[in-house]
Design a protein that fits this description.
transmembrane, alpha+beta, 4-stranded antiparallel beta sheet, Pilus assembly protein, about 20% strand
């Protein structure tokens, strides 16, 4: 049995249509997934900074990984790392406390979070390197930069 002429002309058209549409659909899907990751990262870091400030205002030092001579500022940064669900290590981070910026751990000092009754403003500037070129078109240098912050008053410790 021979197929009618109009049916023979339609054979393989679904494959051609899929070949045209699939790359666009996959790029959109990847873009949505990466944008979701950016949103998740921002919210996770906001939570981590808030938890770090809540820890900082207590004056405690027990989160410092060093067993001897525990330092409050190292304990606060460790609390931020613990609360960030691994995002802290994936980001390029610059920490600002009360306006003073600390770009590396070697710049941290014992007085950076102030004393009892002081206001602590912790601001973290984050840079996330985009994984795919889909969203890199919309962000300079393929990096998503965002800032998260929290403000609280130190307790009397």
């Amino acid at each position: 049995m021979k197929l009618p002429a109009f049916k023979r002309r339609q054979r393989g058209s679904a494959v051609v249509e899929m070949a045209i549409i699939a790359p666009i659909a996959f790029l959109l899907l990847i873009g949505v997934i990466e944008y979701s990751i950016l949103f998740y990262t921002t919210l996770t870091m906001q939570y981590a900074v808030r938890e770090a400030v809540r820890y900082a205002v207590t004056g405690r030092t027990d989160k410092d990984p060093a067993a001897n001579n525990q330092q409050r500022y190292l304990a606060v940064v460790q609390q931020m790392k613990n609360s960030s669900m691994g995002m802290y290590d994936s980001l390029n981070v610059a920490i600002s406390v009360n306006g003073a910026t600390y770009a590396s751990t070697s710049a941290y000092n014992a007085n950076m979070f102030g004393g009892p009754g002081d206001i602590v403003v912790l601001r973290v500037d984050c840079t996330w390197k985009l994984a795919t070129p889909v969203l890199a078109v919309f962000f300079p240098n393929g990096e998503y930069k965002f800032t998260v912050a929290a403000t609280m008053q130190n307790e009397s410790f």
